[in-house]
């Protein structure tokens, strides 16, 4: 251990020691640095992350990283589940991976996987929990699964989750199980898998982008959350859309970290961290930086796209635009029309105006408006609705044609004539 006797004596006496000493002691005793101190300064966490090779810190996320550290400390004695929640571009994945990188400086290990849309990711997650790769053959997997499980039913069920081919007899046995028995087996399998991770010194299981989960993937995640009482940290990354627009009841007892936009100071610091990637003069870079900061509205992912990816169209972030366009394509023609008319009104629109507009369009309010919220375009506020980010509105506005503008004008004139309500574009920005 590269720590002098004098340094150990200073630590035992409660005197100040170097960050390097604390980090080396933590590594030697196979713990993380916050277990050595009552209150761990964030600068020490940054130091250990830097030692592990993570040089891009979570600027402006000191509180969030500290919360994860405290929950990790609690998970030494009991299972802790924490949800990192926020809209696209707020830095959920970077926060999670940055936190996990701190484990690299200790002998602790972490397991990370992100759920991909329309892809069955569950077999890959379970392979990681089992400690096998995608290249591992079926015979080897069967041998390891048999050693892990304590009943034939658990054995067959885990093989099915891993997409390992079953013979006819094995399939028939699983098909004959009722839902209650299947749930019991899934609990037993989940416990065995987590225990296997703990035995291999894996203390954190991180599952990112769970809003993309298919039904069977979500079932397994629910089981991990509610039925595995073992000492580990379960970390879930969630974009609050679709079934997670409002958190479901099975996550009610979990810890929540709701990511908010960064303040101006943190956003400026983050922009400065990209200075090495500039491809223009200092004066031009400064101008681009100021524009990007103003337009990103505290969203680190959007800021990085504006400064590093160099948007090609209308100064809009390309990746963000692609995601929004994919979401637009999932809407019905009536929902797209409603969204465009709302975009013409402004960033914010009160509930009375929404009611009048929908009645004019002869739409079913609950179904169409709720879907616009669920997909991630709108967000409910106390007296109406607003766009989640003004870029979303700009992207929608880019697709409004002359006919739709005329339709909007006709609607507003009718509403004014019938209700004496003037509709003026509203540019009140509200970033939930």
Please describe what this structure looks like.
The chain is an alpha/beta fold and about 425 residues long. It folds into three domains: about 60-260, Rossmann fold, CATH 3.40.50; about 265-310, no CATH class; about 325-420. It has 20 helices and eight strands.
Brief write-up:
The chain is of the alpha/beta class and 432 residues long.
Topology:
Layout: H1 5-12, H2 19-28, H3 42-51, H4 62-74, E1 80-85, H5 92-101, E2 109-114, H6 122-130, H7 138-148, H8 152-161, H9 168-175, H10 179-199, E3 202-208, H11 215-227, E4 233-238, E5 255-258, H12 264-272, H13 282-296, H14 300-309, H15 318-329, H16 333-345, E6 348-350, H17 351-361, H18 365-375, E7 378-381, E8 384-387, H19 390-397, H20 402-419
Parallel strand pairs: 1-4, 1-5, 2-3, 3-4
Antiparallel strand pairs: 6-8, 7-8
Helix pairs in contact: 7-8, 8-10, 10-11, 12-13, 13-14, 16-18, 16-19, 16-20
């Amino acid at each position: 251990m590269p720590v002098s006797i004098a340094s150990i004596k200073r630590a035992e006496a409660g005197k100040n020691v170097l960050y390097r000493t604390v980090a080396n002691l933590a590594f030697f005793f196979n713990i993380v640095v916050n277990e050595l101190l009552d209150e761990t300064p964030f600068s020490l966490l940054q130091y250990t992350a830097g030692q592990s090779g993570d040089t891009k810190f979570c600027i402006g996320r000191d509180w969030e990283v500290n919360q994860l550290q405290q929950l990790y400390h609690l998970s030494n004695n009991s299972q802790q589940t924490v949800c990192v929640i926020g809209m696209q571009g707020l830095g959920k994945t970077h926060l999670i991976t940055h936190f996990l990188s701190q484990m690299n400086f200790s002998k602790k290990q972490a397991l990370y996987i992100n759920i991909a849309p329309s892809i069955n990711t569950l077999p890959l997650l379970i392979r990681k929990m089992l400690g096998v790769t995608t290249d591992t053959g079926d015979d080897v997997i069967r041998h390891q699964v048999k050693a892990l499980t304590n009943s034939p039913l658990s054995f067959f069920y885990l093989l099915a989750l891993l997409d390992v081919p079953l013979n006819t007899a094995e399939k028939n046995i699983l098909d004959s199980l009722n839902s209650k028995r299947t749930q019991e087996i899934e609990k037993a399998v989940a416990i065995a898998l987590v225990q296997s991770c703990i035995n291999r010194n894996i203390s954190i299981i991180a599952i990112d982008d769970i809003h993309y989960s298919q039904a069977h993937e979500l079932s397994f995640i629910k089981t991990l959350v509610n039925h595995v009482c073992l000492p580990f940290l379960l970390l879930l990354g969630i974009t609050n859309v679709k079934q997670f627009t409002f958190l479901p009841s099975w996550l009610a007892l979990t810890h929540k970290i709701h990511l908010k936009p960064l303040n101006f100071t943190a956003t400026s610091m983050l922009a400065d961290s990209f200075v090495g990637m500039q491809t223009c003069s200092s004066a031009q870079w400064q101008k681009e930086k100021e524009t990007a900061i103003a337009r990103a509205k505290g969203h680190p992912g959007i800021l990085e796209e504006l400064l590093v990816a160099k948007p090609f169209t209308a100064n809009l972030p390309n990746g963000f635009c692609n995601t929004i366009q994919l979401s637009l394509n999932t809407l019905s023609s009536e929902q797209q029309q409603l969204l465009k008319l709302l975009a013409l009104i402004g960033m914010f629109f009160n509930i009375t105006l929404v009611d009048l507009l929908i009645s004019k369009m002869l739409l079913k309010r609950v179904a169409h408006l709720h879907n616009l919220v669920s997909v991630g375009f709108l967000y409910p506020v106390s007296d109406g609705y607003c766009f989640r980010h003004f870029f979303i509105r700009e992207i929608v506005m880019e697709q409004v044609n002359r006919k739709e503008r005329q339709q909007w004008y006709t609607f507003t004139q009718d509403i004014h004539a019938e209700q004496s309500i003037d509709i003026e574009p509203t540019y009140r920005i509200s970033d939930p």
